[in-house]
C-alpha cells in the first residue's frame, strides 16, 4: 500500500540512492518480494513512498535506520542514550550508586543530543545517586533546580520523587526548618488538588514525619501519622504501611513508650520484608535492636544478634550514616555485655565512618568512647572525648538528636563527678529542643528602667 508523500520525506529517495551507491549496490540488490527493481527506481526518484515494512527491509540492506532514511538524522546516538539511561537506572535500583552516578554523569555531558524526557530522568537519577552516597551538598542544588522546572507538574510521579528527596536531603543536611517548610508546602499543594489522601501524600507525609520527629515536634508527627495510616492501609502497599509504622515507632520511642515502639517497629519490619528495599529492612533491624537496648530491663544479647544482622545488610546497601549508627549501637550492646574492647572497636569504627566533622553521629561516637574509657579507668582520655563531642555539638543546629547526645554527655559528666560540666550539657539539651533559658530578675528590672 502506498503512503502519501510528506515534505519530511522529500529526500528519502535521494538518501537511499546515495547510500546504495556508497555501498556499491545496484537497485536490484535492494529489491525483494514486496518491492521490485522498478519500484526501487520509483522510490529513488521520489515518485513513490515505501510502506514501513519495505522501508525497514531497505534500511537493513543499507546498514542504516528507517529514521535516518526518512529524516536524515541518525538515531543511533539516541538509542545509545536510551541504553545508557536504562543501565544507570538499573544500577541505581541495585544499589550500585557509583556506577549509576558515572553513567548519569556521562549521559548528561551529551545533553545537546538528548530529548527533554531523557535529560529529566538522568538528572533525577543523578540526584538520587548523590544522595545515596551522602553527597548532599551536590544533590540539593540539582533537586532545587528540578523543583522549579515547569515541566514537572504538581502531583506527578517526578514531582513527588523530587519533592520527597529535597525534603529528606535538607533534613539530613541539618536544615530541619527548611525541610519541614518544603514538606508542608508540598502537602498543601496536594490538598489543593482536591484529592483524597493519595500515595503521594503518604510518601511526603512519612518524610515530613521524620523531620518533625528530628525537630522534636512529636505531637505533629503523631497527628500526621494518624492521618496517613488509614490511607496507607487502604492503598495496600506494604512499603507505605511499613514506612508509617516505622515513623510511628520512632515517635513512640521518643515519648518513652519503648514497648509500643518495639511492637510498631517489628510490624514495620514484617511489612517491609515483603518488598525488596534491603536498606530499609537493614535500618528497621537497626531500630529494633536499638530499642531492645532501652527496654527495662535491657536485652543486649538479643539486640546484638539483631544489630549484627542489620550490619550485614547495611554493609551492602547502606550509606556511611547508616553504618555509623549501627556501629554505635553495636558499641552500646557490647558495653552492656561487658565486652569493652569490642565496644571501643565499634565506637572507633563509627567515628571513622563519619569523620571528625561537626556532626551528631561523630559527637555521639565520642560519648561512647568516653564512657568506655571511664569503664577502663582512663579518665583523662574520657575527658578529652567529652570536650571534643561538646565542641562538635555547639556547631550544629538544634535537633532532637543533638538534644539526646547532649543529655548523654551530661549524664557522663554527672556520673563521674563533674556537676558544672553536666549542668552545661543539660542546659544545651534543653535549648536543642526549644526550651528557652529563664530570664534573670536583674535582666527583667533592666528592661523596666
From TrEMBL:
Residues 16-69 form the HTH cro/C1-type domain. The keyword ATP-binding does not apply. InterPro entries: Cro/C1-type_HTH (IPR001387), Lambda_DNA-bd_dom_sf (IPR010982), TPR-like_helical_dom_sf (IPR011990), TPR_rpt (IPR019734), TransReg_Diox_bact_type (IPR050807). It comes from the Bacteria. The keyword DNA-binding applies. Keywords: DNA-binding. SMART domains: HTH_XRE, TPR. This is Helix-turn-helix domain-containing protein. The lineage of its organism: Bacteria, Bacillati, Actinomycetota, Actinomycetes, Kitasatosporales.
Amino acid at each position: 500500500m502506498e503512503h502519501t508523500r510528506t515534505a519530511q520525506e522529500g529526500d528519502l529517495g535521494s538518501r537511499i540512492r546515495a547510500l546504495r551507491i556508497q555501498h556499491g549496490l545496484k537497485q536490484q540488490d535492494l529489491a525483494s518480494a514486496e518491492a521490485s527493481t522498478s519500484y526501487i527506481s520509483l522510490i529513488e526518484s521520489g515518485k513513490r513512498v515505501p510502506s514501513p515494512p519495505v522501508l525497514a527491509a531497505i534500511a537493513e540492506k543499507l546498514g542504516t535506520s528507517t529514521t535516518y532514511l526518512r529524516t536524515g538524522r541518525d538515531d543511533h546516538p539516541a538509542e545509545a542514550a536510551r541504553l545508557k539511561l536504562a543501565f544507570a537506572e538499573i544500577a541505581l535500583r541495585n544499589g550500585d550508586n557509583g556506577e549509576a552516578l558515572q553513567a548519569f554523569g556521562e549521559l548528561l555531558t551529551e545533553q545537546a543530543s538528548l530529548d527533554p524526557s531523557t535529560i529529566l530522568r538522568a538528572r533525577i537519577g543523578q540526584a538520587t545517586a548523590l544522595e545515596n552516597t551522602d553527597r548532599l551538598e551536590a544533590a540539593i542544588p540539582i533537586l532545587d533546580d528540578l523543583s522549579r522546572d515547569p515541566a514537572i507538574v504538581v502531583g506527578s510521579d517526578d514531582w513527588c520523587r523530587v519533592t520527597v528527596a529535597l525534603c529528606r536531603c535538607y533534613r539530613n543536611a541539618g536544615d530541619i526548618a527548611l525541610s519541614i517548610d518544603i514538606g508542608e508546602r508540598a502537602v498543601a499543594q496536594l490538598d489543593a488538588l482536591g484529592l483524597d489522601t493519595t500515595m503521594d501524600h503518604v510518601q511526603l507525609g512519612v518524610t515530613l514525619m521524620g523531620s518533625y520527629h528530628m525537630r522534636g515536634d512529636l505531637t505533629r508527627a503523631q497527628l500526621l501519622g494518624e492521618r496517613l495510616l488509614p490511607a496507607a492501609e487502604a492503598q495496600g502497599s506494604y512499603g507505605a504501611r511499613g514506612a508509617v509504622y516505622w515513623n510511628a515507632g520512632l515517635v513512640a520511642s521518643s515519648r518513652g513508650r519503648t514497648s509500643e515502639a518495639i511492637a510498631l517497629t517489628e510490624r514495620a519490619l514484617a511489612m517491609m520484608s515483603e518488598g525488596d528495599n534491603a536498606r530499609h529492612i537493614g535500618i528497621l533491624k537497626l531500630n529494633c535492636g536499638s530499642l531492645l537496648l532501652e527496654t527495662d530491663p535491657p536485652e543486649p544479647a538479643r539486640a546484638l544478634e539483631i544489630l549484627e544482622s542489620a550490619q550485614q545488610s547495611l554493609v551492602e546497601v547502606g550509606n556511611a550514616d547508616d553504618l555509623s549508627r549501627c556501629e554505635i549501637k553495636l558499641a552500646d550492646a557490647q558495653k552492656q555485655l561487658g565486652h569493652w574492647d569490642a565496644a571501643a572497636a565499634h565506637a572507633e569504627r563509627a567515628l571513622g565512618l563519619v569523620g571528625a566533622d561537626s556532626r551528631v553521629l561523630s559527637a555521639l561516637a565520642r560519648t561512647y568512647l568516653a564512657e568506655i574509657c571511664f569503664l577502663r579507668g582512663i579518665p583523662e582520655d574520657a575527658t578529652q572525648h567529652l570536650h571534643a563531642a561538646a565542641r562538635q555539638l555547639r556547631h550544629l543546629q538544634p535537633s532532637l538528636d543533638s538534644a539526646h547526645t547532649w543529655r548523654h554527655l551530661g549524664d557522663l559528666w554527672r556520673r563521674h563527678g563533674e556537676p558544672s560540666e553536666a549542668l552545661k550539657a543539660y542546659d544545651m539539651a534543653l535549648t536543642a529542643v526549644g526550651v528557652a533559658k529563664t530570664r534573670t530578675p536583674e535582666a527583667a528590672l533592666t528592661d523596666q528602667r
